[in-house]
Amino acid sequence: MSSVSSMSPKSVGRYKDIAKLAVKYGGWHLAARLGLAEQEGEGDKDAPPVGKPEELVLDLEALGPSYVKLGQALSSRADILPKPYIEALSKLHDSVEPFPFEKVREIVESELGVKISSAFDEFEEVPAASASLGQVHRATLRDGRRVVVKVQRPDVHKTIVEDFDAFASIAGFFDKHTETGQVLHTQATIEQFRTNILQELDYRTEARNLKTLGRNLMHYDLLVVPQPIPDYVSQKVLTMDRIEGTKLTDLSPVVRLEIDGEELADELFKAYLQQILVDGFFHADPHPGNVFITRDHRVALLDLGMVGRVSDRSQERLLQIVLAASEGKGDKVAEAAIDLGKILDNADEDGFHLAVVQLVNHTSDQNISQVGIGEVLLKISSISAEHGIRPTPSLALLGKTLLHLDQLAATLAPTFDPGRAVQTHASGILKKRTLKSFSPSHILSSALETKELLENLPRRANTVMDRLASNEFSVRVDAIDEASLLEGAQKIANRITAGLVLAALIIGAALLMPIESKFQLFGYPGLAIILFVGAAILGFRLVISIMLNDISSNKKK
């Protein structure tokens, strides 16, 4: 088996790092399947993996930003990793040593085109937080507005690109040479991760996300979304409102007594249901570090570098899954999950259906408030992969988001019941989805489609009639009985002819109606009434004939 290192000599060091991880957490055979055995050396081929899930978190943090982000992304893929690793990666901290203020000054002034002293009245040199992609500094604008400035790390974009080139090479090798890779399509997964992270590196995208989420949640009085300062935003610098508050995990017992945890948890859950199932745009990383409790006891959602998007079709299915899971209806959960995923050639639909029903029934016995809807959705993603059904990425991302949300709600109010919250707000969600379908954009789109149909209908009808009249009407089919086709065409022609005669009778009667005549019936011109009656009889007979023929055809089928 050829080594992956031959694909890109400049990435040998990265391949060695990945090979060590593969051997430590998957065994020598996993490294061999990835084509990385040569990078790790011979070693003990029969030695079992020795790494624990908690150690994987530390190893990824030590390897750098790309590995941290990859680990965070994998924490939503229960179809790829076992549960212990999912739980460990969900706690992956994105905190590293800050880079010097001289670099901060250089980047800010280069990106904004103005000196820090001219743009800001105050700018703290010591960062308030430092992560793998950037760090945050408190500042005050010249007009007194208190803000935070997020500055991207030097050369992090280049590092991310090179690291993910190595990841993609290994994933491509894995997909090509292993059955598991062909099922999971790991290269496509890595490419999706790469796209998401590169978008996260463009702070202009995050600024747009902040504005969109702030607009969508403007009616939620207990939620706060900081807004960007447009003139102080660039690809590597993001300036936004400063939120004064405390991380949810750092709340003191005194503050916990002052806040209404049940109300905040309910508002947060309701807002996320709207984001996911109505807006189709949601804050996809609500871990405790990104959620603050403000001084006026509201919930602030921070860091919108990672967002999720859900199509209208997926929203319908996800709503069915969430509602059915909260009500303990395993059959409906399984049906909606199958419809949402992609059935592979080796799929075991019956086994999947049984496993999901057992999962939901077991969850119902335990009480959904103890398990959490997010955990249920992640388990469904894992069960899908085990039974040859490729789950949609939105299901896993939604599961991870709701898992974090369950944890936040439990921190705010230990007795909060997510299942009951879903059922309580279900009618409101359905109402908003209905109103969304009647929005001006949807109505205009439907009107344009109807207009196009009506404009083209006469021309298409004339074309059909002309070809029928000139005996040029033809239907191209594959493997069909010609006699049945001719019989069907004759029926169509008969019905069209009867329809034309019926139309002629009605039009003739309408034209005769205003003409004075001594022969009258029911106070109207007699001939016109006779034509109307004849048209009615013919129309009634035509409808009955069509219905009888259709019923007969259905019985034959």
Characterize the structure shown.
It contains 24 helices and 16 strands. With 557 residues, the protein is α+β, with helices and mostly antiparallel strands. The longest helix is centred in the last third of the chain and has 31 residues. The strands form five sheets. Strands 1, 2, 3, 4, 6 and 7 form a six-stranded antiparallel sheet that branches. The protein folds into four domains: 130 residues, no CATH class; 184 residues, no CATH class; 32 residues; 82 residues. The model has no long low-confidence stretch (mean pLDDT 80). 62% of the residues lie in helices and 10% in strands. The protein starts with 11 loop residues before the first helix and ends with a helix.
What is the radius of gyration computed over CA atoms, rounded to a whole number of angstroms?
Answer: 32 Å
Give the domain tally. Answer: 4
Distance between the termini: 56 Å
User: What is the mean predicted local confidence, pLDDT?
Assistant: 80
Number of helical segments with 4 or more residues: 24
Q: How large a portion of the residues is in β-strands, by DSSP E?
A: 5-15%
Give helix % range. 55-70%
| Major sheet summary line | 6 strands, antiparallel
Structural class: alpha+beta
- The total strand number stands at 16
Q: Which stretches are poorly predicted, pLDDT < 50 over at least 5 residues? A: none
Coarse shape: elongated
Oligomer: single chain
